[in-house]
């Protein structure tokens, strides 16, 4: 066989091989299924927690609960004991709708500025008020201002809960700024700090819930993050 024929056969072989490879690749892409956020299993969704301090608020907490219920989202509420007075039914609703309740002390005081005994009493008084209302003792406490009293965990059997993402909703009281700050900063396993005592915070929280759900995040209560 002449060299020209050999080269011609080789060229035909390469063309046919390339065509077959292209056909296989095209069919594979056509058959490929790309999972959307809604198709991920619970194990595959990155988990985060929405938490709300300083409630309950007679106006804004119900509005927030309505929005969370509509979206099938559970959050964590750290309640100030004195704010439960007159809002007992609202606190019961928080519990009945599957949210986690924690103590935010009774008077919203900075624990590390108190004596050990007064700090303990503040936490337990808030916790006892929750028990009187719901019949359940809380295992979680969020110290106001994030200021935990050193060695206080040796005096009470509760778990202090901090946060990774501070929405600064109390400071800006601007829905758009709150949403942008949280959505920009959040990562898997984060605990988001918000407050259910401002209308702008409630609006922002629900927008954040929608945006991050669309991104594939799953909202859980803090015990699911801390104890799993």
TrEMBL record:
GO molecular function, one term: hydrolase activity
InterPro entries cross-referenced by the UniProt entry: Glyco_hydro/deAcase_b/a-brl, NODB_dom, Polysacc_deacetylase_ArnD
EC number: 3.-.-.-
Domain of life: Bacteria
Keyword Signal: yes
NodB homology domain: residues covered: 46-220
Signal sequence range: 1-20
SUPFAM superfamilies on file: Glycoside hydrolase/deacetylase
Entry keywords, A to Z: Hydrolase, Metal-binding, Signal
Protein name as annotated: Polysaccharide deacetylase family protein
Organism: Blautia caccae
